[in-house]
UniProtKB/TrEMBL annotation:
One of its GO terms (biological process) is DNA repair. This is Uncharacterized protein. Pfam families: RusA. InterPro entries: Endonuclease_RusA-like, RusA-like_sf. The lineage of its organism: Bacteria, Pseudomonadati, Pseudomonadota, Gammaproteobacteria, Pseudomonadales. GO terms for molecular function: magnesium ion binding.
Length: 78
């Protein structure tokens, strides 16, 4: 499973800091915690995408700033 969490950039940030965030030079270290988002996503798709989240054996997880916030989930079949 691949999970990408795209966090919004604060409107109050300077253009320089915004550019650094988009380039991955500034990381989002505030809430939500990436592991909590992963758990919520797994709970939400449990019984729909897979029978039980115990079937998830490999996870790629990232949390970055983005101008288009959201969550990207991709499953890989066995």
């Amino acid at each position: 499973m691949e999970l990408r969490i795209m966090v919004p950039i604060a409107a109050s940030w300077s253009k320089k800091k915004t550019a650094q965030a988009l380039a991955g030079q500034v990381m989002p270290t505030k809430k939500p915690d990436a592991d909590n988002v992963l758990k919520a996503i797994c709970d939400g798709i449990n019984g729909i995408v897979f029978k039980d989240d115990v079937q998830v054996v490999n996870v790629s997880l990232s949390k970055r700033f983005s101008s288009t916030p959201g969550v990207y989930v991709r499953g890989h079949g066995a």
